[in-house]
Design brief:
The complex is a heterodimer of chains A (111) and B (112).
Chain A lengths: L3 E4 L2 E5 L4 E7 L6 E6 L5 E7 L2 E5 L2 E6 L4 E6 L8 E8 L8 E3 L3 E6 L1
Parallel strand pairs in A: 2-11
Antiparallel strand pairs in A: 1-3, 3-8, 4-5, 4-9, 6-7, 7-8, 9-10, 9-11
Chain B lengths: L4 E3 L2 E4 L5 E6 L6 E8 L3 E9 L2 E4 L8 E7 L2 E6 L8 E8 L6 E2 L3 E5 L1
Parallel strand pairs in B: 2-11
Antiparallel strand pairs in B: 1-3, 3-8, 4-5, 4-9, 5-6, 7-8, 9-10, 9-11
The chains are: A mainly beta (111), B mainly beta (112).
Chain lengths: 111, 112
C-alpha cells in the first residue's frame, strides 16, 4: 500500500504570494492526483499527472517520478484559493484504482 | 451533465439502526468508488467497483459494512448495525477508465 506525505499541513499567506505544496509517496505509481476540497466540503479534481508538468490557469503541478515527489504551485494567490489541497495516488500503484490520500494542506490566503 | 449524485446529504440516526447511503454515478463511467472522511483518519478508500463488480473491498472496516452495485447507475453502502464511530462524511466518486475521478457532494452521517 502506498504511503502519502504532504507538507505543509497548514499554510497562511498574503494575497499575491507564490504558493508551493509538496507531496511524496512511497511506491511507484502510474499517475498522481491533486484535489481541492472547498470549505463547504465538495471535492474537485485539479490535476492528474504521470510525468512532467501541467498548468491550468494560475495552478501548476509538477511530478518527479524517480524521486517520488510532486509539487502544486499557485501563482498570484487570491483569497478564493483558500481551501484544502489533497495529494492522492492509486491505492495499489497503477491503473484505474481507488486512491490513497495525503492528509491535506489547509491553505488560507489573506487579502 | 449531472455530476455524481449522493443521497441523503445528511443523516442522523441512533446507534444500532441500519443506514443506507446511495450513489448515482455519472452516466458512462465504469468505475465507482466509496470513500470515508473523518477528522482523525482523513480520506480513506472503502471499496470500488469496475463494471458493477467489486474489485477491492480491503478498506471496508468490518462486516457491518456492505456495498452493492446492482447496475451501472446505482450503488448503495449499508451499515448494519451502525455505531457512533461510523460518524463521518461518506463520498462516492466515479470515473471513466483511468480518467480523473468525479466526486459527489458527500453524505454527512451522524450516529448518536
Amino acid at each position: 500500500k502506498n504511503e502519502v506525505e504532504q507538507s505543509p499541513q497548514n499554510l497562511t499567506a498574503q494575497e499575491g504570494e507564490f504558493i508551493t505544496i509538496n507531496c511524496s509517496y512511497s511506491v511507484g505509481i502510474s499517475a498522481l492526483h491533486w484535489l481541492q476540497q472547498h470549505p463547504g466540503g465538495g471535492i474537485v479534481s485539479l490535476f492528474m499527472l504521470s510525468s512532467g508538468k501541467k498548468k491550468h490557469g494560475r495552478l501548476i503541478a509538477t511530478i518527479n517520478i524517480q524521486e517520488k515527489h510532486s509539487s502544486l504551485h499557485i501563482t498570484a494567490s487570491h483569497p478564493r484559493d483558500s481551501a484544502v489541497y489533497i495529494c492522492a495516488v492509486p491505492h495499489s500503484g497503477g491503473g484505474a484504482d481507488g486512491l490513497t490520500f495525503g492528509k491535506g494542506t489547509h491553505l488560507i490566503i489573506q487579502p | 451533465d449531472a455530476g455524481v449524485i449522493q443521497s441523503p446529504r445528511h443523516e442522523v440516526t441512533e446507534m444500532g439502526q441500519e443506514v443506507t447511503l446511495r450513489c448515482k454515478p455519472i452516466s458512462g463511467h465504469d468505475y465507482l468508488f466509496w470513500y470515508r472522511q473523518t477528522m482523525m483518519r482523513g480520506l480513506e478508500l472503502l471499496i470500488y467497483f469496475n463494471n458493477n463488480v467489486p474489485i477491492d473491498d480491503s478498506g471496508m472496516p468490518e462486516d457491518r459494512f456492505s456495498a452493492k452495485m446492482p447496475n451501472a447507475s446505482f450503488s448503495t453502502l449499508k451499515i448494519q448495525p451502525s455505531e457512533p464511530r461510523d460518524s463521518a462524511v461518506y463520498f462516492c466518486a466515479s470515473s471513466f477508465s483511468v480518467q480523473p475521478q468525479h466526486f459527489g457532494d458527500g453524505t454527512r452521517l451522524s450516529i448518536l
